[in-house]
Amino acid sequence: MSEPVAEFFADSILEIKIAINEQNTFTLEGFAALDAALEKAAARDDVRALILSSARDDFFSNGLNPTSIHGRPREEHERLIGYFFSVLKRIYLFPTPVVGAINGHAVGYGAMLAIMCDFRLLTDKGARMSFPEMNIGVTLPTFVTTRIADLCGERALRDFLFAGFAPKPPEALAVGLADELIEKEKLADRARSLAKRLAGLPRNAVRLQKGILRNGTGRDFDALIAADLKATLGMLSSKEAMEGFAAMVEKRRPKFD
């Protein structure tokens, strides 16, 4: 079995490729591997830009693997959701610029990973970015909805949450989910070109500037994520969430009251 993440380092640029499974759906092992890679990368003085990408052709990430939730004990839920938020926070607060090279569908948690990046380069065809959590009886955390609203505005956030908005690449660019649309075969080169430019900026100034940008929001990320984690764990034990994940595992439509 291949490792769930792969790392490549050259010219002060670290690329972390997600390689969990065919659709990059997150398991406990996948979360643990990505969390550890990000923690290690953030502590390195020689990393001046980070690229987050996928080793799969058609999926950046198709979100959570439902088998990691359905039928699992609460102890596993606690570990999984702990990693869920830790990874998002590590990307958002990473000390150097993060370029997301989004080569395919980014759904649910996959889209959450993408929006935590500083720059989002999206393939111009064959990719949707969406947040379909409501369809399976769960809600998006405050940390995530705040980030969507910052990037796309309240109207787009409403449509993501309640109208099932799953924009095609041009629409994703228009609403602010993506910064550039790139042909798939040129995406890796463009991500590396951008990362190279970012890596050439003054190292200490970049780190200070990122801290100013994040701290300037006035948000207490630790408190926000702690509240989100507690709420998410409670929600996973709800009747609606259990039915939603069961339906995903059984490949059927959920039946809600």
Describe the structure.
- The chain is of the alpha/beta class and 257 residues long.
- 49% of the residues lie in helices and 15% in strands.
- Helix 1 links the parallel strand 2 and strand 3.
- The longest helix has 19 residues.
Give the tags:
257 residues; alpha/beta; 6-stranded mixed sheet; 3-stranded parallel sheet; 10 helices; 9 strands; 49% helix
Strand sequence of the main sheet, in spatial order?
A: 1-2-3-5-7-9
Helix content: 40-55%
Helices, by number, come to 10
Structural class label: alpha/beta
The H/E string reads EEHEEHEEHEEHHHEHHHH
Radius of gyration: 18 Å
Largest sheet: 6 strands, mixed
Please report which band the strand proportion falls in: under 5%, 5-15%, 15-25%, 25-35%, 35-45% or over 45%: 15-25%
Q: State the shape.
A: globular
Distance between the termini: 41 Å
Total strands = 9
Mean pLDDT score, rounded? 95
Uncertain segments are: none
Task: Give the SSE map.
Layout: E1 5-10, E2 13-18, H1 28-42, E3 49-54, E4 59-61, H2 74-92, E5 98-102, E6 105-107, H3 109-116, E7 119-123, E8 129-130, H4 142-152, H5 154-162, H6 169-175, E9 180-182, H7 184-199, H8 203-215, H9 221-236, H10 239-250
Parallel strand pairs: 2-3, 3-5, 4-6, 5-7, 6-8, 7-9
Antiparallel strand pairs: 1-2
Helix pairs in contact: 1-2, 2-3, 2-9, 4-5
Short characterization:
The chain is α/β, with parallel strands linked by helices. It has helices at residues 28-42, 74-92, 109-116, 142-152, 154-162, 169-175, 184-199, 203-215, 221-236, 239-250; strands at residues 5-10, 13-18, 49-54, 59-61, 98-102, 105-107, 119-123, 129-130, 180-182. The model has no long low-confidence stretch (mean pLDDT 95).
